[in-house]
Amino acid sequence: MRNLPIVLLVLVLASALVAPAVISDFNLRLATLALHTSIAVIGLCIAFGWTGLLHLGQAAFVGIGAYASAILTTRAGLGFWTTMPIALLASGLVALCIAVPMLRLRGHYLALAVLGFNVTFEIVARNWTKLTGGFDGITDIPPVFFFGWLIEGDKGFYYLSLFFVVIVALFGTALRHSRYGRAMIAIRDDELAAGTSSVDVTRIKVLAFVLASVLAGLSGSLYAHHATFIAPQDFEFGRSVTILVMLILGGESSVAGAIIGSVILTFLPELLRFLGDYYQAVFGVLILLILIVMPNGLVGQVQSWRARWAKGRSNG
Amino acid sequence: MSAQVLQLAINALAAGCIYAVVALSVEIAYESTGVVNFAAGQLVTAGALIGLSAVAYTKFNFLPAYLLVIVGMSMIGIVFLICVYLPLRRQSVLTIVIGTVGVGIFIQNVMLLTWGPLPKSVRSPMGSGAIKFGDVSVSLHVLYVIGVTALLIIGMYLLLYRSSLGRQFRATAQDPEAATLMGIRVKQLYALNWILVCVLSGIAGLLFAPMWLVDVTSGDNIGLKAFAAIMIGGFGSVPGAILGGIIVGAIEIFGAFYVSSAFKDALVFALMFLFLLVRPQGIFGERAADRA
Amino acid sequence: MAESSPDAILQVRGLTHRFGGLLAVSDVNLDIVRGTLLALIGPNGAGKSTTVNLLTGVITPTSGRILLEGQDIVGCSSSAAARAGMVRTFQNGRLFKRLTVLENVLTGADGRAKTSLFDAITRNSRFRAEEDAFRHSAMELLTELKLDGDADRQVGELPYGKQRTLEIARALILQPRVLLLDEPAAGLNSGEVEELISYVSLLRSRGLSILLIEHNMGLVMRLADRVAVLNFGEKIADGTPAEVRSNERVLEAYLGRKASHAAG
User: Fold this and answer.
1) Domain CATH number, residue C204
2) pLDDT at B174 over 80
3) Candidates B107, B228, B235; nearest CB to A116
4) Is the pTM of this model over 0.95?
5) Are residues C119 and C191 in the same domain?
6) Which of C117, C139, C174 corresponds to the end of one domain?
């Protein structure tokens, strides 16, 4: 029983590795999308799940990464491995600039400010036509080369995304089990007590926000090169809500939950295809149901069942 | 003042009035429950679209049609209370806020299924007439918007600050348990609160609809600007919400004319960010850093 | 006011906090001699909690100086004050619910950490050495406080008395210069209070300077080297427990109402 998580992890990784051989092209495309989206969701796990920053603008930071990558590859002819780090840096820097004034504020102020930022990003992306292509977006974003080997088609991109998801998940897990992760969770649990326990609250909040945005930038850069086409509506406020719901569905303070949530929510529209136009309305109800029925998400639910099971066993 | 500036100023005031009414609705929900209602924009659209159908149903008898809208919005308020607020009340405010986002998505898509995606034009009870003051022409609807808003503000002031009901509201907001012990019927007050919130947003929908075309997303933008208005005017302040609304209306109308119509909304948010930087408590509001 | 002896680890001068139009704390002077325990007492609403908040940087005083080892810490954030050595516990136990018992204690070590984010992510030898050292001292504290068996439990599973003890452990790992205990006995049963008394005496005998805010007069009289009394935000007496016990202003303002309590 103690080794169960490790066994599960190995199983999941193994099936992730063989999946492309088994599933259809269409599902492979969705799986790839789910993978690079989950990087942004892990970012949100750091900012919201651990640190408690109600961040309703993650899509804007995905957008910054995507546009940075897209513009630099299509205009300056740079390759993915050059633009991707620049995309991370761009997202991180923008986040740093707005983090310092915003993070003095709490709760709903931050939520509204970041929402305002997301909407402003949309307006700029739609109207600064010279740079962003306006409503039409940017097309023909080149594919990725890996040591001269063209990563073409969904299979290659799937493995590229999987590689980054594993790196990011390791990063998240290491962060969680370091003093930084502890400090973040302490801040969400009790900001005042975190401060008097010597946690530099503002610094850690800024760090969490910037890390969340850097990961969003990575997610966006991958998205741009995978889709080869981006437009402003890919990064609107509604997308931020979806990213947040992915996190809450999976379990808001768990890296594994972030990945699970993004996989489920990426495939859900397909699974519920029979709902047709009703899907979005059902999605709204789904949000409420998750909040009411399992506020700690799937991972939290499983943990509480396990705890109950262990308790029952030790008592019996 | 030139006629043109005057013309713009009147339009700005009318737009500002609509933002002010929505901001007032968000402010009331916030003051009595601590929840920022992210579904405000969708409630505005709901008011406009229910109004459209009600007016058609009553064959342009505006009074009964508008009464129908108020009944409809009240029902939405009660459903909101039962399905969202009461089940989530014991959880953190963040959770309830995310819940309101879910409600917004739900309402919007039910409207999309009911009314379809096409924009619709809506008639004003004042018709399409206008009064001329020299070179300035003011439509009757704009005067009506300003008048109704003024009445609503006075009504809300009397209700919240001059009646025993208002005192009960504030007592409950501060400490629901103590309020229960004092014999205040907390659940009924919550019901009244959400009805008020929904009806106010709905009225904002009735007011804005004849000025612009209505589709299922028109309220979104109005809701966002109402949030900006509250940040500018100051969270926790009713006068702030109203003044903030009017400031946002002015920036939008003058900004579109003198700066750029594509970036008029960006100007609104730029001012909001400026306030967050320099004066996070807004013009009249609570100290932003103090309240969780 | 006369400057106090060089032996004072904490000197508070003219501490004042205005709250709206109200003076919550007014011109308070306090001295803690190194290695001793000063008890701060006073009726409800006397300004004790505000004083603790002012001393630990949770709120900034309107005026006054707080000299810790001669260094003024007024204007420091709460985390800077904690790093400077002014460490507190809370009246109503504020632990981190989603962290384990051990992690709660480790959070208190954050101010002493030297490793960077890069070290933490790569889990290099620097990081592991620091983490091991912190874990070691945290476990030592937990063992001393008989919480070692609960190290990996969630805080919520602990009984109340243990939660209060855990807060002391979280404060001690910071290696405070002055430890502020805000009503540590509140809600404890008499057995737990006895354990608390002997542990606090042990800490003092090791040379720790302590400010104790307490309602329980029995506890105060048994532990305090000196007692300061607040009433309506002003200090009305300061002396040995015996002196304070017989001070007329104190009897009138505070002990008068609780004379039976104090005598017992």
Assistant:
1) 3.40.50.300
2) no
3) B228
4) no
5) no
6) C174
Domains belonging to chain A, first-starting first, are: 4-315 (1.10.3470)
Task: Give the model's confidence band at A6: pLDDT under 50 very low, under 70 low, under 90 confident, else very high.
Answer: confident
The whole domain housing B36 covers: 3-291
Residue C210 forms part of a structural domain? yes
pLDDT classification of B89: cutoffs 50, 70, 90: confident
Contact C107 A196 (CB under 8 A): no
CA within 13 Å, CB half, B233: 28
Q: What is the CATH number of the domain that holds B102?
A: 1.10.3470
Domain count, chain C: 2
Q: Which residue of A has its CA nearest to C128?
A: A178
Q: Considering only CB atoms, which chain A residues are within 8 Å of C127?
A: 178
Q: Does B280 touch chain A (CB under 8 A)?
A: yes
Contacts of B292 (CB under 8 A, 6+ apart): A106, A107, A191, B93
Q: Domain boundary at C113, C139, C174, which?
A: C174
Q: Is the pLDDT score of B112 beyond 80?
A: yes
Tens-place pLDDT, residues A243-259:
999 999 999 889 999 99
Q: Is residue C91, in this structure, part of any structural domain at all?
A: no
Nearest to A117 by CA among B266, B144, C64, C22: B266
> Is B218 in contact with B48 (CB distance < 8 Å)?
yes
Give CA–CA dist B42/B205, Å, rounded.
9
Residue C91, chain A, CB below 8 Å: the answer is no
**Residues in a beta bridge with A149:** A146
- Interchain contact B3–A (C-beta under 8 A): no
- Cβ separation of A195 and C96 shorter than 8 Å? no
Q: Are A123 and B280 an interchain contact pair (Cβ–Cβ within 8 Å)?
A: no
Pick the residue with more confidence: C172 or B281? C172
Chains that touch C (3 or more CB pairs under 8 A): A
